[in-house]
Design goal:
This protein is an alpha+beta fold. Helices cover about 55% and strands about 20% of the residues. It has 2 domains: about 1-45 and about 250-375, no CATH class; about 55-215, no CATH class. It has a 6-stranded mixed beta barrel. It has a two-stranded antiparallel sheet with strand order 2-9.
C-alpha cells in the first residue's frame, strides 16, 4: 500500500514530477561522467603497462609516470639478472620525437618506444606477429590509434622521424595512453639512429620476468636491498597503486573529477529534497488524515522513502543510456578507456540509492507537521 500511495502522489502533478526527474537525470548523468573519467585516467596511465610482459619494473628513483620516467644505468639490469628468481631482464627506451611527411608539412610530436624485438615484451597479437618486421633496419610499427593528423599509416609508407627516414612496417592495436598523440615501436638499433645523442648505457625502464614459482614480492625486496638507491623496483600491484595515486592526487584529475562527483551528489540530493518537501507540504492534510485513522509515522515515512527511490530509479534508466552513449564518444575523442563496467554501474546505482535515502531523511521534518490536531 505505501508503494501505491507514493505512486499516486507522484502522478498527481505530473509536470512537477517530470521537472524533478529532469534535474535528477542530469545529476546522475554527471556522476556517471565524472566517475568514468576519475577511473579511466589512471587506467590510461596503465594502458601500455597492462599489455607488457613483466613481473617487476625497474625504474629511476626519479620516476614520476611513464612519459616522465627519467633514466638509470643499464648496468643495474645486469645486477638484477644475478638474482636466482629472475628469468629475463629487458631494457626499454622512451623518447619524444618529431614526425613529418618527407614532402614537408606539419612536424608532429610522437613517442618512440625502443626495445629488443626478440624479448617479446608486448602481449599484443599484432606486435608478436610482426617481430621480424620490427627487426628490419629503419622500420617501425605504428599504433593504429595514433591520431588521424599523422596521415595514412599503411605499411610501406616512408616518414621522417627526427629528420631520419624510416618505413612503416605495420600497425598494432593498443592505444597511446598518456605518451602522446601517436606512438611507434622501434628496435634498439633503429631507436638509437633516431636519437643519436642517446646511449644504450642509460635506459628508461627495465622489464623483469621471473622464473616460475618465484615470489614477486620476495624478489623485489631482495633487489631493493642489492641495488643502489638510484633505482626503484615496482611489482605490478605497486605500479598500479603508484599510477592511481599520481593521477588522482598529483594532477588535476582528483580535484576536477572528484569535486565534480561531490557537486553532482549534492545537486541530486537538493533537487530530490525540494521535490519531496513540496509534495509533502501540498499533501499535508492527506498525510494527517492517514495518521488520524490509525496509520503510524513509520508508514508515512515509508511512503516518502518509496517516493524518493522511485524518482531516483526512474531517472537512473535514461541517465544510464545517455552515459553509455557519452562514454563511446569519449573513447573515440580522447582514447581513454572509459567503459561501463559492472562495478561502475553498481557504484553509481548505490550512490543514487544513498542520495534518495538522504533526501527522504531530510524531508521527513516536513512530515512531522502532519498533526491531525493542528491541521483540523
Amino acid at each position: 500500500m505505501p508503494f501505491h500511495i507514493a505512486w499516486r502522489i507522484l502522478m498527481h502533478q505530473k509536470g512537477r514530477t517530470v521537472l524533478a526527474l529532469g534535474g535528477i537525470f542530469i545529476a546522475i548523468l554527471l556522476i556517471f561522467v565524472e566517475l568514468g573519467f576519475f577511473i579511466a585516467v589512471p587506467q590510461g596511465g596503465m594502458l601500455i603497462y597492462d599489455h607488457m610482459r613483466f613481473d617487476l619494473l625497474v625504474s629511476s628513483n626519479k620516476y614520476i609516470f611513464q612519459a616522465e620516467s627519467w633514466q638509470f644505468p643499464r648496468a643495474r639490469l645486469d645486477e638484477v639478472g644475478k638474482n636466482a628468481g629472475v628469468a629475463q631482464m629487458s631494457p626499454v627506451y622512451l623518447g619524444g620525437a618529431k614526425w613529418q611527411d618527407p614532402g614537408g608539412g606539419l612536424r608532429l610530436d610522437i613517442a618512440v618506444i625502443g626495445l629488443d624485438p626478440k624479448a617479446r615484451l608486448f602481449a599484443v597479437p599484432e606486435v608478436d606477429s610482426q617481430l621480424e618486421v620490427l627487426d628490419r633496419p629503419d622500420t617501425v610499427l605504428v599504433d593504429s590509434q595514433t591520431r588521424p593528423i599523422f596521415g595514412q599509416l599503411q605499411a610501406g609508407r616512408a616518414v621522417d622521424i627526427n629528420g631520419k627516414r624510416v618505413t612503416i612496417g605495420g600497425q598494432y592495436d593498443l592505444g597511446t595512453g598518456f605518451l602522446g598523440l601517436g606512438v611507434v615501436l622501434a628496435s634498439e638499433a633503429t631507436f638509437f639512429r633516431l636519437f643519436p645523442t642517446r646511449r644504450p648505457e642509460a635506459v628508461n625502464l627495465g622489464l623483469v620476468a621471473l622464473k616460475p614459482g618465484a615470489d614477486p614480492d620476495q624478489v623485489a625486496r631482495e633487489l631493493r636491498a642489492a641495488l643502489p638507491n638510484d633505482t626503484q623496483i615496482f611489482t605490478r600491484p605497486e605500479l598500479s597503486s603508484h599510477e592511481v595515486s599520481f593521477w588522482t592526487t598529483r594532477t588535476g584529475t582528483g580535484l576536477i573529477f572528484g569535486s565534480g562527483l561531490v557537486v553532482a551528489f549534492i545537486v541530486g540530493i537538493m533537487v530530490l529534497f525540494q521535490t519531496l518537501a513540496t509534495q509533502i507540504t501540498r499533501q499535508l492534510p492527506q498525510f494527517a488524515t492517514l495518521k488520524a485513522i490509525g496509520y503510524s509515522s513509520a508508514f508515512l515515512n515509508a511512503i516518502v522513502l518509496i517516493e524518493a527511490v522511485l524518482v531516483m530509479v526512474i531517472a537512473f534508466v535514461p541517465a544510464l543510456a545517455a552515459a553509455i552513449g557519452i562514454y563511446s564518444v569519449i573513447r573515440v575523442q580522447t582514447l581513454l578507456p572509459v567503459n561501463m563496467t559492472a562495478a561502475l554501474l553498481g557504484g553509481v546505482f548505490a550512490t543514487t540509492l544513498l542520495m534518495s535515502g538522504i533526501s527522504a531523511f531530510l524531508s521527513l521534518g516536513r512530515l512531522r507537521r502532519a498533526d491531525p490536531a493542528e491541521i483540523f
